[in-house]
Design brief:
six-stranded parallel sheet, single chain, 2 domains, about 40% helix, about 10% strand, Rossmann fold, globular, about 220 residues, alpha/beta
Length: about 220
């Protein structure tokens, strides 16, 4: 795994929490979904177990496995057509990194129709060279498949890339893909466990990314 940012030419980002301020929209969709399914939603269990692999959250909350696909469909419906706004500083930071010559991409467990809509409606619509979503992978985070697909599409080596995320699963995925890992605090519950995952770089805000990536050499 690279230990320096000097070899990095490509920055790959998680979407929800890292760039999109979607925590409250996502939580509301979970609550409405469980209410419609008639299953109790325990906020303390959600806080303790939330994962980008939301099937782990379903399991922890006691949702029967035969209802998981229906829950996915309901969640997307309840999330609705409203697009999450970018987190503070994300637009300025990524546009600046793009101007500095970095190649940018997204690797997310979110669904393509929602994430694509949110990207298209944001200030970052033109900066990503690759967007890997739930539909493009077989294995869920922290399996490195999503990052490996992105690197192949960009013809990048792992030592040329960094992955920036807000959850422990993001950091584990980055380590398993042998890329530099950057953890960024977010409003998602899993972010509270981020430091324990030992990213190469930890940031309190996405804006701090510019201090570590001054430009391609």
């Amino acid at each position: 795994m690279p230990k320096t940012t000097h070899t990095i030419t490509t920055l790959l980002f998680d979407w929800d929490g890292t760039l999109a301020d979607s925590a409250q929209l996502g939580l509301a969709a979970f609550q409405k979904t469980f209410a419609e399914l008639g299953v109790a939603f325990a906020p303390d269990i959600y806080e303790a177990t939330y994962s980008p692999n939301w099937y782990l959250t379903y399991e922890a909350l006691g949702l029967p496995k035969d209802k998981w696909q229906l829950a996915d469909d309901l969640w997307r419906r309840h999330y609705g057509e409203e697009a999450a706004q970018l987190v503070n500083g994300a637009a300025e930071t990524l546009l600046g990194l793009h101007r500095k010559g970095y190649r940018l991409g997204v690797v997310t467990s979110g669904h393509e129709n929602r994430v694509g809509r949110e990207i298209d409606q944001s200030a970052l619509a033109e900066v990503f060279e690759v967007v890997i979503c739930n539909e493009h992978t077989i294995n869920r985070k922290p399996h490195p498949e999503g990052l490996e697909i992105a690197l192949r599409r960009l013809n990048n080596r792992p030592e040329e890339a960094a992955y920036i995320g807000d959850a422990p699963e993001d950091i584990e995925m980055g380590k398993r893909a042998s890329v530099l890992t950057v953890g960024v605090r977010s409003s998602y519950p899993s972010s509270a466990r981020l430091i324990d995952s030992e990213p190469n770089i930890y940031l309190e805000s996405i804006a701090g990314l510019s201090n570590h990536f001054p430009g391609r050499s």
